Fold:
Amino acid sequence: MADRKRKKKVTFKEVLNGRFFESEWFRRNRILMFVIFLMLLTNISVRYKSEKVIREMTALEDSLIELRSKSISVAADVMMLSRHSVIMDRVKKSGLDLETAKEPPRKIYVDKE
Structure:
């Protein structure tokens, strides 16, 4: 009885040579060890996937910044091209006989039947 109650300490040497896996304690708790091993593997895989997602997010944020600046420059170009003086210059260069209206636009009302 005294031998059973006396706990045998596990040494580093026993773990390295594999005798630890033959012990009674390991046999009783092998399911727990397996679950812990699976949890560690899951943790590692989730960590790698999250790092991959973070890298993709930073790349997308960088491209978003570039696209925003390009959008601003295109909007400025469109605003410049839609100015009245630029339009009139382009009409004169193309040789069209178009003139600006002297009367302001007005609404046309139609009666519904």
The radius of gyration is 39 Å.
